Structure to design on (556 residues):
């Protein structure tokens, strides 16, 4: 087999590629003489190649293939050449430089558009055509401007002509609608080409990347960070961002903050299961989403709580709208064959009321903090004091909140330090002992009724109620066990309970547990219920009384 025939066998498809792209393949034997296999070269060009061999004698004598590129004589401007060692000599391959440039661009995994100094497109690579879904002819000359944002191009030209940093590109992102109707997001980078040793701009390079998948992934991350996974409503973090963007000490007058809390949700979860509870939350979320108007905001605050930012209106109109909201949420719902009687407590605070209390020059953070505090207090007030289950705060309510906040601090200290004394007063001829609470510490001398009402309105009542019940049972148990009387002979314990205590299943369970721990029977207790119980839902009252009766206690 001849030397050049063996090279053909070794190179397989390479000669065909070289011939297709106007390249050449030249085999040189060990004596530096050309073989018969020559593609695309004239005799003069062959001589130029051979004259360059002397310059690379060290490379040719190397034991390894020469992998670096070489340029030979007169071929420097036309070809890019490579020399590789072969057992019978050397073979030299070359491709036209413009073909190499074009091929390199087509191999790049990014859209590339080459512009001249007049912003006329002279070349686009295959990847750009794939990204935009068009062919090369639709991009050349000025046609490419049909696919990129013209305003951004104007900015890019001005930037690149005035930029003091030669390598500083202009970058932007935009949406592009392809001819097939697919909307994609692209990142565009435009830079100036100053050429070799040139002091002026010779052209421009436009790089286009399809970032649709990255943008979609980023959108999903942002959505997950700002939305509740169950209801798909925005979360508290998203609400904080909304307030940061739209609300300040002056514009707050135009908004109303609404706090919504579902009553009895824990009982639904405990009795019907979390799956039903989750579906109920989704149903309420859908109702609230349909209620808000354009520009307003709704979020899930966590658990069974929701926060809404509504546009402010005159009080009469606002009251009607809050009533509509309450009626909407309180509509019964059927979930997994369970008919659920919905109830929610709603507290609202118009921003303009805050500005009467806080001057506009006040710190934004302090006003927003007060906004949430009052909305929360209004919701608790509606839950325990309002038969309509909604409350719109006014200036007098804000003053009451501040008084209650002071009480709250004292009440929490009282519960922590157990600063109460229990006294008993006889009923009739020691037929019963009525447990009365008296406060110590900062609350000493305060009316128990006022303190209890304040605790209910600001939502810290259950800790106080538990302490009062626990201490009352302990003192009664000491008196009973110190006597020689049987339980039916000893005066029974008379306990006054507020409505929130009676309808709270956990409170009744804990109270009975205290009795058992002290060696007492529920039959030794009479529960006196406040007349305020009539303000609460009839079904809650019946359920509470049945629970008390089931344990064996009496009530009136």
């Amino acid at each position: 087999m001849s030397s050049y025939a063996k090279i053909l066998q070794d190179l397989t498809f390479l000669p065909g590629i070289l011939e297709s792209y106007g390249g050449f393949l030249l085999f040189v034997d060990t004596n530096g003489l050309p073989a018969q296999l020559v593609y695309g070269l004239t005799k003069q060009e062959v001589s130029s190649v051979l004259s360059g061999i002397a310059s690379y004698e060290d490379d040719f004598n190397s034991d390894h293939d020469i992998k670096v590129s070489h340029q030979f004589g007169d071929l420097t401007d036309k070809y890019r050449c490579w020399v590789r060692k072969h057992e019978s000599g050397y073979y030299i391959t070359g491709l036209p430089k413009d073909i190499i440039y074009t091929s390199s661009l087509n191999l790049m995994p990014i859209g590339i558009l080459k512009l001249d100094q007049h912003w006329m497109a002279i070349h686009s690579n295959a990847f750009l055509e794939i990204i935009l879904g068009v062919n090369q002819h639709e991009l050349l000359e000025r046609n490419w401007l049909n696919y990129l944002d013209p305003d951004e191009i104007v900015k890019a030209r001005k930037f690149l002509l005035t930029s003091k940093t030669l390598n500083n590109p202009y970058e932007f992102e935009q949406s592009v609608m392809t001819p097939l109707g697919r909307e994609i997001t692209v990142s565009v980078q435009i830079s100036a080409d100053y050429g070799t040793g040139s002091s002026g701009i010779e052209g421009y390079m436009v790089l286009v990347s399809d970032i649709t998948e990255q943008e979609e992934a980023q959108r999903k991350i942002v959505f997950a960070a700002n939305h509740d996974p169950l209801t798909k409503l925005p979360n508290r973090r998203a609400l904080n961002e909304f307030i940061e963007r739209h609300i300040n000490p002056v514009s707050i007058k135009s908004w109303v903050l609404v706090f919504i809390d579902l009553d009895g949700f824990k009982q639904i979860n405990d009795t019907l299961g979390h799956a039903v509870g989750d579906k109920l939350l989704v149903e309420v979320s859908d109702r609230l989403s349909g209620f808000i108007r354009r520009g307003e905001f709704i979020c899930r605050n966590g658990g069974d709580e929701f926060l809404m930012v509504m546009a402010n209106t005159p009080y009469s109109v606002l009251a009607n709208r809050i009533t509509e909201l309450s009626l909407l949420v309180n509509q019964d719902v059927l979930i997994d064959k369970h008919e659920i009687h919905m109830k929610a407590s709603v507290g609202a605070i118009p921003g303009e009321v805050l500005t009467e209390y806080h001057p506009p020059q006040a710190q934004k953070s302090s006003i927003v903090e007060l906004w949430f505090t009052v909305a929360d207090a209004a919701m608790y007030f509606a839950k325990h004091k309002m038969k309509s289950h909604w409350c719109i705060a006014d200036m007098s309510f804000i003053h009451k909140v501040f008084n209650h906040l002071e009480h709250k601090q004292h009440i929490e200290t009282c519960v922590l330090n157990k600063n109460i004394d229990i006294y008993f007063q006889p009923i009739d001829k020691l037929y019963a002992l009525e447990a009365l609470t008296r406060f110590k510490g900062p609350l000493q001398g305060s009316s128990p009724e006022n303190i209890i009402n304040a605790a209910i309105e600001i939502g810290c009542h259950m800790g106080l109620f538990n302490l009062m019940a626990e201490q009352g049972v302990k003192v009664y148990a000491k008196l009973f066990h110190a006597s020689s009387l049987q339980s039916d002979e000893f005066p029974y314990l008379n306990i006054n309970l507020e409505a929130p205590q009676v309808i709270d299943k956990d409170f009744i369970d804990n109270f009975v547990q205290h009795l058992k721990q002290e060696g007492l029977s529920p039959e030794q207790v009479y529960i006196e219920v406040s007349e305020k119980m009539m303000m609460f839902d009839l079904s809650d009252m019946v359920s509470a009384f049945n629970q008390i009766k089931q344990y064996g206690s009496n009530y009136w």
Notes: The chain is about 45% helix and 25% strand. Confidence is low (pLDDT under 50) at residues 1-13, 54-71.
